[in-house]
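Figure 2 data, in text form.
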Amino acid sequence: MRSTLDAAALCKMADRGQITGAILDGPLAFDNAISKEAAQSKGIVSPVAGDPDILLVPDLEAGNMLGKQLTYLAQAASAGIVMGARVPMVLTSRADDASGRLASSAIANLLAHQRRQQGGRP
């Protein structure tokens, strides 16, 4: 699968120092990413299993599904940002409350500010 190759490539880039500032591991199935016990039961040794800060998904549809599951099954707070364009884009659900919309806007603003500080466009 393309997403599996992409995840492996990102991890290899991190191993080479091309991506810094984070610990990357993957591809990991959802259960292995969020549960150290699930990963251990399958013989997976991962520095992030059971304690991820970010779950990266391969496309918008997968991200939407994951976001809805976390929101409705785990009462997770959410913020939606799309990266890869010239500027960060806010992407919220019609069902998001004001706090989710505000969090998304704040994160997009922080990312744009950081990019400006680094000499790039917002």
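Caption note: The helical segments are 2-15, 30-34, 36-41, 60-74, 98-117.
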